[in-house]
Wzz/FepE/Etk N-terminal domain-containing protein
Amino acid sequence: MEEKQNNIAEEKEIDLLALANKIWANRKFILKALGVGLVIGLIVAFSIPKEYTTTVILTPESKSTTSGNMGSLAALAGINLNSAAGQDALASPELYPSVISSTPFLRGLLDIQVTDSKMGIDTTLYSYINDYQSAAWWGYILKAPGLLKGLFSSEKIDMNDSNSNSRIISEEEQKILNNLTDRLTISSDKKTGVTTIEVMMQSPEISAYLADTVTSYLQSYIIDYRTQKARKDLAYSEKLYEESKADYYKTQATLAAYVDGNMNVVSAKYRTTQERLQNEASLAYTVYNQMAQQLQMAKVKVQDTTPVFTVIQPAVEPLFPAKPSKKLILMGFIFIGTISAIVWVLREDMKRFLIN
């Protein structure tokens, strides 16, 4: 039994030596395959257009700090700001990716003006993605069947109709939106609340500008959403304040006119009417005073619910492309060429091994 195991081990060792010798004997062929992989890798690496990534890091303020500062003032009017803070749907930064990838948010970016001074580009983001984005040469080959189909197709889409109706998106615009979605990346840390926004474009200048714009748009979007109810309450408080103010001034003017018109009158009816007008003026003043306090509290609430974002890393124009990684592409094709050549050299041995 031991002799059998020794014979099997010896056969395996001899086989491995034979395979190594066979590979060494065909080293010129393998080196040629390696050279072919190197050439193909160079062609592929330099055919893929450069992409530049701009990163912005920001963090929202802690709501407890602001609520603590305003809590004492709000408590005078019986408003608890702490309980109202952070209860809206967009309070968590984890939902920011959904905001950025939403169709209304993306469509709002398509009309912004972008420029590249080096390339002489000055157009809208929609036109830049549609007309100025380059692709690898094989991308045009893959698109050829679709282009030929478009030439013989009689169907035409009116872009004006799609722009006038927010529920209608043309096929071309949908492709632009999908392209833009792939170029925008946002992530948030659950523990720290730090949000990272990355924008990838073929122009470093446009990449930095779009990253700054997306950051500003996101901040405005979140601020508008989170202060929506507070701003509605403020508008309603302003309306009540103006009505109570006008009512107070009216009752005060009525009382003054009645007193001036009956200065020398001594009558119980006069005193009763004057007392009634005085009570009405006092009541109107009380309501007016309460509405003034409520208006101030509504303004405080709007300020309190307005989130403040601290930009840790602003948008800076990148100096070096983020992709493609030419080294990785070259190493990958060299590896594939070498392995393919070795497999070809050892094909007969592999067949015998699989059969046995």
About this structure: The mean pLDDT is 79.
